[in-house]
Amino acid sequence: MSRPPLPPFSRETAIQKVRLAEDAWNSRDSSKVATAYTLDTKWRNRARFVSTRDEVEAFLSGKWVRENEYRLIKELWAFNENRIAVRYAYEWRDNSRNWFRSYGNENWEFSADGLMQNRHASINDLPIREQDRLFHWPLGRRPDGHPSLSDLGL
Fold first, then answer.
1. Is the N end or the C end of the chain the one with fewer CB atoms within 10 Å?
2. Could you give the angle at the alpha carbon of 5 between the alpha carbons of 10 and 105, nearest 5°?
3. Spatial CA neighbour of 48 closest among 119, 115, 105
């Protein structure tokens, strides 16, 4: 199984890979998202370590139970050969209706078939008021015309 675009990445294919990842995560379909990772993928997500595709799927299933109305924007930061660095922000609310904007950076490393074999994520959560939300599109894929992180001053 391969997952284009494949490394080595150009600026264009790195941007495409980032958008495909954003679209998948905005689907909140943990089984679909998990297929983008190698069977033995290695993750660090905050202080949690994940080491298989099955663990990715379980992690994401739990994440999207806790993080309601999840909307994410990713933006390319840098790339080289089979590595991509992204910055991102996502908005969500907890079960008590408290809103948050989570800011993060990820470093990705891909196998030759385009599956992600390593993901290192650092994330901070900022409580926000509902009226301070910036991500208002219907749940699912961010519309093409929606402002990017840079456009929003994030």
1. N
2. 70
3. 119
